[in-house]
Amino acid sequence: MGAAAHIHSAEDARRLARRRLPWMIFDYIDGSAGAETGADRNRAAMNALTLRPRILRNVSNRSLGTRLFGEETARPFGIAPMGMCNLSGPGADLMLARLAARHKIPHGVSTVASTPMEQIIEVAEGHAWFQLYFSGDGTGTFKLVERAKAAGYKTLVLTVDVPEVGRRPRELRHGFKMPFKIGPRQFIDFALHPRWSLTSLAAGKPQMANFEMPGYEFDRTESRAKADWDTLARLRDAWPGNLVVKGVLDVEDSVALRDAGVDAIQVSSHGARQLESAPAPIEMLPLIREAVGDTFPLFYDSGLRSGEDALKALMAGADFVFFGRILQFAIAAAGEPGLTRLWDVLSDEMSIAMAQIGVDRIPTHPRN
């Protein structure tokens, strides 16, 4: 029996990944800011949210399809942008891209992806969004915007909740750095996890592929604090496609973003990886929905661990949601078969929950 067959939930994938990954890599993927109370608060808020069971409704013909920026998708959930995914397993970026192509859902391609943005969008058959960090004085940032445009990206996701990189003690204790560096401590860690180490060694050290261009060297610790509303206006003028702003947790900011001409807002706490004391995004979601109105596109990520979680977010006001680190856990646990298996689990969880609450289609506004 392959490892993928042992994945019956996201927690199964996490448990298997914890066994197989070096401690440094697992804690980079799994860790949150500070003492990680923000992650606990996110989970508690999601657990406290309930769905209303309804009976005697014909829900025998259910569909998980929806529409996103005018196009059909096979699922109401996609792949959140995640940096250095190939650390979870060689070729992880392209595994995610193939998943996106099969289900016609967006693959969020991180600024710090391990694979060039051009290759990912090709393998994803166009179903890829480019996630952008503003850093330094913005010179390199706008070079990436032009590169994404030339590669054929139609949607740009500006992440705004990292003016400075949050302190994640689990990372710091292991000496995790980008670009990736190996010292004595890391060597011992890798030696104790030979399966990961040998396959990763054979594939070559993961790189931040989107920075291999003249005149731009990425420093993960470089301040991103210079970005302001004028920066957003410049980006809106420079980008002809869909512009999504990700990392929003404030009602006033949400209204201002809508009025500034962005095409969608993504409610997110960056998986509780930045500000430990940030509010739980699932609690802010209905407040932001009420403020921006029923027709404005509103997306959600952070702390989703099941298809039922995703359905809760959709019922609370999101039009579309994104899964993140649990997909990397599935890859670490069992490679591409593990990713496929977890995706099927998430789909089944959502479909069954839909039947239990008496709906056969993804809910749209207004919710009831």
TrEMBL record:
Would you tell me the protein name for this molecule?
A: Alpha-hydroxy acid oxidase
Q: What class of enzyme is it?
A: oxidoreductase
Limits of the FMN hydroxy acid dehydrogenase domain = 2-368
Family as reported in the entry's similarity comment: Belongs to the FMN-dependent alpha-hydroxy acid dehydrogenase family.
Which keywords does the record carry? Answer: Flavoprotein, FMN, Oxidoreductase
Pfam families from the entry?
A: FMN_dh
Could you state a single Gene Ontology molecular function term?
oxidoreductase activity
Taxonomic classification: Bacteria, Pseudomonadati, Pseudomonadota, Alphaproteobacteria, Rhodobacterales
- What EC number(s) are associated with this protein in UniProt? 1.-.-.-
Among PROSITE patterns, the record links this protein to: FMN_HYDROXY_ACID_DH_2 (PS51349)
Cofactor(s) annotated in UniProt: FMN
- Output the Gene3D superfamilies linked to this UniProt entry: Aldolase class I
